[in-house]
Write a structure and sequence with these properties.
Blueprint (H helix, E strand, L loop, with lengths): L1 H30 L4 H33 L8 H27 L3 H36 L2 H19 L3 H15 L17
Helix pairs in contact: 1-2, 1-4, 1-6, 2-3, 2-5, 2-6, 3-4
The chain binds fe (ii) ion (FE2) (2 copies).
Length: 198
């Protein structure tokens, strides 16, 4: 279904950012200093593209509808995904709080940044696998054609009203530039928006 295809395409973009973040951490570990500009860009992509836009679509639209239609909010797969989004936010805060110290070469801040980056990368990779492999197929079976059409429309509104026109493309551009800088293959990323601004 088109609805989960949009979210899966966004996962492919997020995975590229995760690999870049891993390389940013490796670079910081070997040089003893964090590249502040790259780290801030990666955090911005994670906060805006991954959390506000992608997790926003999941939490406020897809998961909300699944709960409305009878899936349990707590204890089930939706509850687990919501819990993991929150865990992710704590790791992002841990990274963000330590960027400036780590960029100055403060070893404690550097270790904290790296620890939170590793935690986030591990969490999100595992989270994405669960959504692609379990939750999205479950949602496909659970939602009617009519529900899916309604949700597609709601996704479009997130892009045009909440995120703003051109935001998706702007962040894809940042991801591609980080990928180029850190030698990460991003050839599978569509530069055309799938869910945003359509
Ligand atoms: Fe998610
Ligand atoms: Fe997701």
């Amino acid at each position: 279904m088109e609805l989960t295809k949009i979210l899966q395409e966004e996962h492919r973009v997020i995975e590229v950012v995760l690999t870049c973040l891993g390389n940013i951490s490796k670079e910081a570990e070997s040089t003893g200093k964090l590249n502040e500009e790259s780290a801030l860009l990666a955090i911005d992509v994670i906060r805006t593209f991954a959390d506000k836009c992608h997790h926003g679509k999941e939490e406020n639209i897809l998961f909300a509808t699944l709960i409305e239609k009878g899936m349990p909010k707590e204890g089930g797969p939706v509850g687990q995904m919501l819990f993991e989004h929150d865990q992710g936010r704590a790791f992002v805060k841990g990274m963000s709080d330590n960027v400036s110290g780590a960029a100055k070469g403060d070893s404690e801040a550097l270790q904290e940044f790296i620890r939170n980056a590793h935690g986030y990368i591990h969490l999100l990779r595992d989270h994405i696998q669960k959504e692609d492999g379990i939750l999205y197929p479950m949602a496909e079976n659970f939602l009617s054609e009519e529900d899916q059409k309604r949700l597609m429309k709601a996704f479009e509104n997130v892009e045009s009203d909440q995120m703003g026109k051109g935001t998706h493309e702007k962040y894809i551009g940042i991801v591609l530039s980080l990928a180029e800088k850190y030698g990460v293959d991003a050839s599978h990323i569509s530069t055309h928006s799938s869910g945003c601004n359509h």
